[in-house]
Amino acid sequence: MSGGLKTKELGIMAKKYLRMTLNERIQHINLAINFTILVITGFALKYPEAFWASPITDVPLGMTFRGFLHRLSGVATVTLGGYHLLYLAFTERGRRIVIDMIPMWQDAKDLWETLKNNLFINRPAKVIRMGRFNFREKLEYLGMIWGTIVMTVTGFILWFKEEWLLFFPMWTFEVSRAIHFYEAILATLTIIVWHFYSVVWNPDVYPMNWAWINGHLTEHEMELEHGSELERIRKEEKGRQAHFNEGSGAGPGGGRAYPVNQEGREKFSIKGFYGMIQHLNESIKNWKGM
């Protein structure tokens, strides 16, 4: 009996669901690298005496290189943001992400029930079944968009100070500098405190949520964080199974299928990556605004 239960549990853990495609993982890694560089090189200007800034400040022309690297990473981040907008607009999966990221009333109810669980008001804790993107992920994503816009605008004002002051008073520059600094603190704390807890320190996913590397979540992880989405996928799989059984080629008694998200089978290859770029280019050429 226990052996059967253990086998069932292993089966649940082994089944995987696509969370991030290769394209999305590359975008995520790109953003993570540039964000880290921006944080280090940005705060090194404000706190040059800090121990972690010494590798920059203690070398000849270190602060000059710091400025160049900070601006370079800033431009790279803005470019990535532009590519991400194209991905959202010109790919079917991207447009689906936009729709699924829209905050709904259910997200507010999920947030409320989560607070009640954490404050021990719900006893026992209520099981919350959330969609493809839960309220935490939606808040993070929308916050990232807002933060990127704010940091881009204020960053260019600080970069082109002389040109800015030809048209605007000095106090607008000082306000931009203050906003840039405090938004940087807010963004850094959001990543360290909130995002890292969700994907690393949370006991349900520790030592790490590996989706940003392998692109998949296990059925157990889906059940915990995206129960409603898992139910939807299961219904779709049952529908595909029923359609297969009714097919003329199934033979007497129907056939036996093992529905797997086909995107989940992707393997990295140079040829596949090149084909993905070609497909994206064709999508952009053929897009008619529909």
Explained architecture:
The protein has 13 helices and two strands; from the N terminus they run αβαααααααααβααα. It is mainly alpha-helical and 290 residues long. The protein has one domain: Up-down Bundle (Fumarate Reductase Cytochrome B subunit). It has a two-stranded antiparallel ribbon with strand order 1-2. Helix 7 runs antiparallel to helix 9.
Topology at a glance:
Blueprint: H1 2-14, E1 16-18, H2 22-46, H3 54-57, H4 62-90, H5 92-101, H6 105-118, H7 135-159, H8 161-165, H9 170-201, H10 211-214, E2 216-218, H11 219-225, H12 227-245, H13 270-286
Antiparallel strand pairs: 1-2
Gyration radius, in Å: 24 Å
Distance between the termini: 55 Å
- Tell me what the CATH architecture is: Up-down Bundle
The structure class reads mainly alpha
Give the helices and strands as they follow along the chain.
Answer: HEHHHHHHHHHEHHH
CATH topology heading: Fumarate Reductase Cytochrome B subunit
Strand content: under 5%
- What is the multimeric organization of the chains shown? single chain
Percentage of residues in helical conformation: over 70%
- By DSSP (H or I, 4+ residues per run), the number of helices equals 13
Q: Please give the CATH class.
A: Mainly Alpha
- The largest sheet has its strands arranged as 1-2
Uncertain runs with pLDDT below 50, 5 residues or more?
248-266
Mean pLDDT: 85
